[in-house]
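Hi C.,

You asked whether I'd gotten around to modeling the 262-residue construct. I have! Everything is below, sequence then structure, no commentary in between.
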Amino acid sequence: MDTEAELTQRGHSSPEQGEGRPRSVFSRSAFSRSAVSRSASFGERAASRPWRRAGLLGVLCAVFLLLLGNFVVQPFQIPSRSMEPTLQVGDRVLVNKLAYRFGGVPQRGDVVVFDGAGSFVREPAGGNPVGDALHGAFAALGLAEPSDTDFVKRVVGVGGDDVVCCDAGGRIQVNGVPLAEPYVHPGDTPSKVPFRIVVPLGTLWVMGDHRSQSRDSRDHLGEPGGGMVPVEKVIGRADWIGWPVSRWGSVPGARGGDGSHG
């Protein structure tokens, strides 16, 4: 009797037969499920990595293009006929923002993009900051039309110049020298509006190449700014046509390359 009780008691408490074996089975089963879970999780992370990398690459590219557009070269979409035939509606020119950043100044003949707020148009009222920021970002990428206050024109006179229209031959004179302007739209005269102005220092007298279709310095003679564009309002120089492909190349007629400006 004592032996059977001892065997019975030992049988219940034996680590090989009692509670030990179920715990061992449970632990292995839990470990297996955990391993499968970790394996599945790892597989999901591995599968998502290409998409994450692509997304990160897209963000980095967008940031790079925004920085490039804000500080180096910005695409600018031509919105009107005012610069025909040099620039056509829908052309995208690449504006060199470094052209005047390190001591350079606009020269006669340069095609420039500038902010006309306060000179060509009234200072705009405060709008939606978020909307303005988004529009500015898309414009910097060349995906949106420029702001209503941005203009593209050709520099005809710089600070100190005496600009007169017109001489006996119908040409504009700068400091007594008549300008040869082969870029003026065929059939247009240099100007139907007579004027004589002395350009104040630090400002520019600008005109469109399609003189009959351009609202430029001539149209603002009687306004407070007198049609002059402050040099600090110049965004950059339009050096290249980037789109469409058929029109790739430098903007013609700038910097007196054809002898039209002195």
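If it helps when you're writing up: Residues 76-256 form a domain with the Umud Fragment, subunit A fold (CATH 2.10.109.10).

Thanks,
B.
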